């Protein structure tokens, strides 16, 4: 069979083009540092690399979300720390003001300082994150969550909490609403007692203290009512049988104990209930304390009301402080969780990057060896073409 000159030239050119294409492919791999430059280089590895790249990008997005969550929680923790300091300062002032030896001027001075703390606390409750978003308004973070009205402070924010997805399987609260912080108490808060504002006697109370949680009536609400028939003073609990009143003697009911001092008037009463059911509100607590400190007490009934209010304020501030510290502990635990999730995400990122490297990155030793081999192949094809080009009968004539 005869082979035409054209065929020999075409085969030689095809061989040289193929060798040159292989050399260019290896050159491109070395220049880019990737084994898979085009999907056609390794379709299976290319498709797996796309999935790994998507997972890596998603991990980075969650990382950015955690940065935002950490900033929000750190700001909240800082504000709650200031709130705790404010409550502690208020307790110190109330302890001083409850001293019966202070003059009205001294109490007025304490009231002035206490009002300053009250205003500071209100400012802390309406704190922002620096971008105009209110920390404790829930999803309604574009306006102050606490506003003053004629009789106190109202919470007008959202009762929900803002959440942010920090990982594929974790949706984390990145804030707490103001109602849960400033108008709630911890579940462990005990009982409170409040004397009726209309009491005309001089009775004061200490407690209530829990003495028997197994009592059948423990956990309920109680009303202590006093009666004076002109001869004997009695008291009854929730309309029960009258009992003789003895000043300074503890009385027990529903697993609780209270000690009463002074002389109650006929019709006076004291309400006792769980702290969570007595409308807990730090701002209202401050307002009740300010009301009795700013208004001088002249009668025994007014002095008794002041003593009861201030003693009760101390218990309410304790409950409020415990609640704030509980929320702050929750914020701290979430910050710790972010650190743990960051560590897990870093390890996951390293795994993704290693997988991506195994799929598409270039082995330079192998690539350079192949590059040299392709060079030799191209040179051989060129030399072969030169030799074939000289095979002509006209050269022998």
From TrEMBL:
Domain of life, source organism: Bacteria
Molecular functions (GO terms): structural molecule activity
Keywords recorded for this protein, A-Z: Bacterial flagellum, Cell projection, Cilium, Flagellum, Secreted
Transmembrane regions: none
Matching Gene3D superfamilies: f41 fragment of flagellin, N-terminal domain (1.20.1330.10)
Domain Flagellin N-terminal: 3-140
Annotated GO biological process: bacterial-type flagellum-dependent cell motility
GO cellular component: bacterial-type flagellum hook; extracellular region
SUPFAM superfamilies recorded: Phase 1 flagellin
Location in or out of the cell: Bacterial flagellum; Secreted
Record-linked Pfam families: Flagellin_N (PF00669)
InterPro entries documented for this protein: Flagell_FlgL, Flagellin, Flagellin_N
Family: Belongs to the bacterial flagellin family.
Protein name, as recorded: Flagellin-like protein
Organism listed in the record: Alcanivorax dieselolei (strain DSM 16502 / CGMCC 1.3690 / MCCC 1A00001 / B-5)
Gene name of the encoded protein: flgL
